[in-house]
Design brief:
alpha/beta; 9-stranded mixed β-sheet; 16 strands
């Protein structure tokens, strides 16, 4: 292929990726997808998938292009769908529009349908290919890719600590560990996740609302509270609006379960022992189409989730502060591993600076056969 053609493909695909990224957090269990229709050096149409159950990115872009779509090249960040779901197959619509070429960044990760959209296009005489900026496209849809394969939520851990690893002082004061710039980014993360998870100790100590607060309107994630003994106060701010999910055990008070449900909240029973079964909890949340969760727990919940190997991505803020204190809590409170070689390692790390704070993003790699805890208070 001509190097200029490759450069052109990447230029248009980057635009499509930008369109997709702008809709992050809006599509529920669906992927974020962007699309650009181009011909003879002109952009004819652009679109993004904006909401589950509504038109896909290709349909928006084709509608904008109109009859000029005939003979055009279509750049789409994910392989056009080939099956009937809540909307008709986009591959058929591209065939009807008479496009000449379709460039896809990534194939559908679902092995039951992967490649079929491209095959359908090729069968109609359309040049169809995948792989242009594939790495960027796969990362953009890491939530969808995990959910479609595992049917459980993609868990992003967010924590903020001082240089000496404390998330609060020895008196419990945590306002504020990080700067306003870092906290603003956290609210963007809330907008981009379907659920936000904390432990009941955080609710009792801080009484958070767990809402999204940005300079522009944002989407509020579903509050998810891990509460083995159902100690959550019924007047907690997080329960002010219906729709919260409380994870507890079969040992919890049936009277309190009923009161919480009467307030419009869901109570999920996840274990017969004294602690919430976190693995089972993730399965139940996945059944309820919670595809992504931002974990903003304290050290104990973070540690339990890490031991259970349920964290898929870590976003760690480090403030340039040293607070000390033997009793000051840390980001992860669990028994720990016996050998350094068993430690969880962050891979694909990226480091950014937000105001005075560092933001470290990485993906945990768990040592095979080490750690199997899956419970917390």
């Amino acid at each position: 292929m001509n190097p200029n053609d490759v450069m052109n493909d990447e230029w248009y695909m980057r635009l499509a990726l930008q369109l997709a990224s702008g809709a992050a957090g809006q599509t529920g269990v669906n992927p974020v997808v962007g699309c650009v229709v181009a011909k003879d050096g002109r952009i004819l149409g652009m679109g993004a998938h904006l909401r589950r159950g509504e038109d896909h990115a290709e349909i928006h872009a084709l509608r904008m292009a109109g009859e000029e779509a005939a003979g055009a090249t279509v750049y789409v960040t994910l392989e056009p769908c080939s099956h009937y779901g809540k909307t008709p197959p986009c591959a058929l619509r591209l065939i009807e529009a008479g496009v000449a070429r379709v460039v896809s960044a990534a194939q559908d990760p679902n092995p039951l349908v992967s490649g079929r959209g491209l095959e359908l296009l090729r069968g109609a005489g359309i040049q169809a290919e995948a792989g242009c900026l594939e790495t960027e496209a796969v990362e953009l849809n890491e939530i969808f890719n995990h959910y479609i394969m595992n049917h459980t939520p993609f868990i992003t851990l967010k924590t903020a600590s001082t240089l000496d690893g404390r998330i609060a002082s020895r008196t419990g004061d945590s306002k504020w560990v990080t700067s306003g710039e870092a906290r603003a980014y956290v609210h963007t993360l809330r907008h981009r996740h379907q659920g936000i998870m904390v432990g009941v100790n955080t609710v009792i100590a801080d009484d958070p609302s767990l809402t999204t607060r940005l300079d522009v309107p944002g989407l509020n994630p579903v509050p998810i509270i891990v509460d083995s003994s159902l100690r959550i106060p019924e007047d907690a701010r997080v329960l002010e609006h219906p729709g919260a999910i409380v994870l507890t055990t079969y040992q919890a008070s049936t009277d309190k379960i009923k009161r919480l449900e009467d307030l419009g909240h869901r109570v999920l029973l996840t274990g017969f022992g004294p602690h919430v079964d976190l693995v089972e909890a993730m399965r139940l949340l996945g059944e309820r189409e919670i595809a992504s969760i931002l974990l903003e727990g304290g050290g104990k919940l973070n540690g339990s989730m890490l031991e259970a190997r349920l964290i898929h991505k870590c976003i760690l803020f480090i403030a340039p502060k040293i607070i000390g204190g033997a009793g000051a809590p840390g980001s992860f409170d669990f028994a720990g591993y016996e050998k350094m070689g068993e430690a969880v390692i962050l891979e694909r790390m990226k480091v950014d600076q937000m105001g005075p704070d560092l933001c470290i993003t990485g993906y945990p790699r768990y040592t095979p056969g080490v750690g199997d805890a899956a419970r917390t208070d």
